[in-house]
C-alpha cells in the first residue's frame, strides 16, 4: 500500500472509531430536553389531539389515555438504543400499569416490521405506528434533533413533566413517575 493510501486508510479508521465511540456513548447517556411551561402544555395538547394507527391498522385517538400517567416512547426497529431499552419498558409497564400508568410505543417504522418485532420481543404495552406524523409529534414535544429513542412523560393533568433523548432505563423512569403515583 502506498503512503498516501495508507494515510487515507488510517484517517478513515480514526473517523470510524470516533463515530463508533460517539454512537456507543450516546446509547448510554441520555439528554433531558428543557421546555418552557407553555411548550410543555402545547406539546401535550398536540399529543392528545393526535390519532395514530395500532398494529392492526385501527386508528387510536391518543386522547383515550388523557388522565393517566403516559410514557410516550418514540422508537424504530432499526435503532439499537431503542432495542436495548424495550425490555426495561416492558418491565416498567408490568410493574406499574395497574397504577394508571400507560407506556405507548410510538414506532417510526414500517407496520409489518413493527408487528414482527413486537411479537418477537413480547411487548406488553400498546404499540402504535406513526411514520412521518410521529416525527412531527415528537418535534412538538421537544425532540428538535429528530433522534431516537425519545421518551416523554406526561402527568395526569396533561402536562409534559420530562423529556429524554437517548436510551432510558427503568430506574430513570421510576425516579420520574414515583412522585406521581402517590
Overall SS class? alpha+beta
The number of strands is 8
User: What Rg do the Cα atoms give?
Assistant: 18 Å
Question: How far apart are the termini?
Answer: 67 Å
Q: Largest beta sheet, briefly?
A: 8 strands, mixed
Low-pLDDT regions: 16-29
Q: How much strand content do the residues show?
A: 15-25%
Shape: globular
Helical proportion? 40-55%
Polypeptide structure, described:
The protein has an 8-stranded mixed sheet with strand order 1-8-7-4-5-6-2-3, with helices on both faces. Strand 7 and strand 8 form a beta hairpin. With 182 residues, it is an alpha+beta fold. It has helices at residues 3-28, 37-49, 80-96, 111-121, 131-140, 170-181, and strands at residues 31-32, 51-54, 59-61, 69-75, 101-107, 127-129, 150-154, 160-165.
Entry summary:
The protein is α+β, with helices and mostly antiparallel strands and 182 residues long.
Secondary structure layout:
Elements: H1 3-28, E1 31-32, H2 37-49, E2 51-54, E3 59-61, E4 69-75, H3 80-96, E5 101-107, H4 111-121, E6 127-129, H5 131-140, E7 150-154, E8 160-165, H6 170-181
Parallel strand pairs: 4-5, 5-6
Antiparallel strand pairs: 1-8, 2-3, 2-6, 4-7, 7-8
Characteristic terms for this protein:
182 residues; alpha+beta; eight-stranded mixed beta sheet; 8 strands
